[in-house]
Structures are given as C-alpha cells and as structure tokens.
Please model this.
Amino acid sequence: MVLLTNQHFMDELTKLFQANKTKGSVWITMKRHEEKPPKEKTAAKGAAKPKPSTEHAADPEPKCLVRATNGKDIKISTVIRHEPRYARVASKDVVRFQLAFATLTKTNMDGLKKRERKGRRGNRKKVPTKHV
Model:
C-alpha cells in the first residue's frame, strides 16, 4: 500500500475512478489511525525489565487513514492530520481535503447501476403454521 500526500492521493483517486468508469469497482475506506509505539527488544532472562516509555502513550493528534483500491493491483492511501498546535492552518487543510474528496466521489458516482430487487414480500406464499 502506497502512502501518498493528500493532493497526490486525490490525483491518483481521480485516475482510479476514470480507469474503472465503464467496468470495475473502487472501494474506499476511512478509519481512525493511531500510530503504534515502536517495539522494544526483550531483555535476556533474569535481566531487569525496562520501564515502558510514556512518549507514545497519549498522542493528542487525531488522524484519519483513507484507503482506495480497485480490488486487484492498485492500492493507495493517505493520512489526514489535524494538528491542534497549528489549528488555523491544519483545520483549513482538513476542510479542503474533505470538500475535494466529497466533490470527487459525487462526480464519479454517475456510473452506478440500479439494483434489481428479487421480489416483494407480498408475492410470497404464506405457509400455515400449527400452534401446539
């Protein structure tokens, strides 16, 4: 999976939608992203255990991982960050990404097919049940 910048992700997502316009699907997933602390090497038997570090315990920066794939060979992803320290700058970037993402998905949903329904409930035969 390739981790891209937000703008490059939007460009690649546009290409992915265009490539799958007539035939194929595009799957988009969004989820909360939490960075895991790096794994520490275990000490030898009998040695004192190192104290767990609290550096990575509380990461105040919320992140959102956005992934897109065609289900075959193309997989792209990006991380949307909101940094509270630079709230004015970062929040504008998040809002800009959300608006661009919403516009892109809306414009590329014109190739959707209407789902065929199997049948109504009223068309089924009622089977009598016996009460004991």
In short: The helical segments are 6-19, 87-107. Residues 1-34+59-102 form a domain with the Signal recognition particle alu RNA binding heterodimer, srp9/1 fold (CATH 3.30.720.10). Residues 30 and 66 are 5 Å apart (CA to CA). The longest strand covers residues 63-69.
